[in-house]
Design brief:
This protein is α+β, with helices and mostly antiparallel strands and about 100 residues long. Helices cover about 25% and strands about 40% of the residues.
Length: about 100
């Protein structure tokens, strides 16, 4: 299992596409999942505009053990993206867009 406790990095694509607020929120969701246990090395996030102004719907999932969670954040500009956060197993984790993988 991964621990996501080391250095955290974001790619240039993430920096261009996701607001700092949204980036921090995704890291927070990983931290929350780490605290509840059963954290896979690959965290997957699907982001879509919500119904309200400034709302983003976030679908967080992982394969092993199976996990799915959906929530929304207000205050982030609407975006459609799929994001991975990967624990490299060497004390670093990286947030990247799926097309940067």
């Amino acid at each position: 299992m991964a621990d996501f406790l080391g250095e955290k990095y974001v790619t240039a694509g993430v920096s261009r596409t996701l607001s700092p607020l949204l980036q921090l929120f995704l890291w927070h969701l990983v931290e929350r999942k780490r605290e509840t246990g059963g954290l896979d090395y690959l965290q997957v996030f699907e982001l879509n505009p919500g119904k309200g102004s400034g709302e983003v719907v976030v679908r967080h999932s992982q394969e092993v053990p199976s996990f799915q969670y959906e929530c929304s954040i207000i205050g982030a500009y609407p975006v459609t993206a799929k994001v991975y956060i990967i624990d490299n197993g060497d004390g670093t984790a990286i947030m990247l867009l799926t097309d940067e993988y």
